[in-house]
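Handout, section B. The chain below has 170 residues.
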Amino acid sequence: MGFHGTDGFSIYDGMGRLSFRLDNYSRKRKCFAGELLLMDGNGKAVVTLRPQVCDRWSGFRGEDGRETDCRSTHVFDIRRRSVLQSCDEAEVLTDSTPDHKLPDFRTEGCFRRRNCKIMDRNGDEVTRISRNKENYSVAPRDHVFSLIIQPNKESELMAAFLVLMDRICT
C-alpha cells in the first residue's frame, strides 16, 4: 500500500486504487484533537478513532455504535510506550489482550523517519513503513511513504494504527 498524508490521509493499494481515507485531518493543535473517522475507498466508515489522555487513542468498529453501547464496538487502545520521553514507539492493546498486560502489537524503529515496523506479540513483522523511493508523481517528503501489510492481517486496523502513530509521534 502507498500512503499519502496531507490535510487528509489517502492509502492506495498496489494497483493504485484508493483503499482507505481520512478526511479533514489536521496536525495542528494536536492537544485539541477530536474524533477521526477512517473510511474505506468507497467512503464507508471502518474505524472511528477517539483521543483519550496522554497520547492514547481508542479504536471502534464502524461509526462507533453511537446509537448503542460503544463498548460492543471497541477494538483497541494505542498508546505511546513511554510518556516521559520523546518516543517514536507505541503499543496496541486489543480487546483480546488478557488484562491489558502485554501489548498485542508494538512498533519498532523510527516512525518520524518513516522507517519502522509493527510487530505482533510473537515478534513477527505485521506491517512495514518506509520512505517511498519510487513515487515520481509527488516530491519526496515525509508524508509520502510505503505501507506493506503482511497477508491475512486486518488492513483496516493496520491503517488505523498508522494514522494514530502519526498523531502520537509527530
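Note. The helical segments are 155-169. Compare this with the example in section A.
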